[in-house]
Write a structure and sequence with these properties.
Length: 161
C-alpha cells in the first residue's frame, strides 16, 4: 500500500510539473508575440510618420511657390477631423486650420514648444500659425490629431491637395 501511495504522488507530481511547464511555455510565447506585435506597430507608426514628414516637405515647397492653394489632412479612421494647411504669403507662415473646441493653456504651451507662433480661435476654428518647416508642421499635425482630436495613434493619414 505504501508503494501505491508513493506511485500516485510521483505520477501527480509528474503531471503537475508537465502541465506547469507547458502552461509557462505558452504564456512566454504569448508574451513574445505581444512584444513582437508592439514593435511592428511602433515601426509602422514611425515609418508612416516619416513618410508624412517627407511628403509634407514637398507639399510645403509647392505651397510657398503658389502651385498649391491648400492641403487637407485627415485620418482615414476619423474622416470628420480634418486639418487644412494654407500658406499665408503676407506673413510668410504656415497656417493650420481645424474645427474643434478651443485649446487650453497646456495644449497651447505644448504647441509653442513645437514652434507655434500664433494661435487664434474664431467661430469654432482653431488657427495655428507656424514657420514653414516640415518637421514643425508634422509634429503639430500629429499633436492635433492625437492629443486634441483624441485619436489613439494617428494612422492611415490621407492628404488631399
Amino acid at each position: 500500500m505504501e508503494n501505491l501511495f508513493s506511485v500516485i504522488v510521483l505520477v501527480a507530481a509528474g503531471v503537475l510539473l508537465f502541465v506547469s511547464y507547458y502552461a509557462g511555455r505558452n504564456a512566454y510565447r504569448r508574451y513574445q508575440e505581444r512584444q513582437l506585435r508592439f514593435k511592428i506597430m511602433r515601426k509602422l507608426y514611425e515609418d508612416e510618420r516619416t513618410y508624412i514628414h517627407h511628403y509634407l516637405r514637398m507639399l510645403l515647397k509647392k505651397l510657398k511657390s503658389g502651385d498649391l492653394g491648400w492641403v487637407q489632412v485627415a485620418s482615414r479612421l476619423y474622416p470628420q477631423d480634418k486639418i487644412e494647411i494654407v500658406f499665408n504669403h503676407v506673413a510668410g507662415h504656415i497656417q493650420m486650420q481645424n474645427r474643434n473646441i478651443p485649446l487650453n493653456k497646456g495644449e497651447i504651451e505644448a504647441l509653442k514648444n513645437m514652434g507655434l507662433i500664433n494661435y487664434i480661435h474664431r467661430d469654432e476654428i482653431n488657427l495655428l500659425s507656424m514657420p514653414a518647416n516640415a518637421k514643425i508642421v508634422t509634429d503639430a499635425l500629429y499633436y492635433c490629431l492625437e492629443e486634441i482630436c483624441g485619436h489613439q495613434k494617428a494612422k492611415n493619414i490621407k492628404i488631399n491637395s
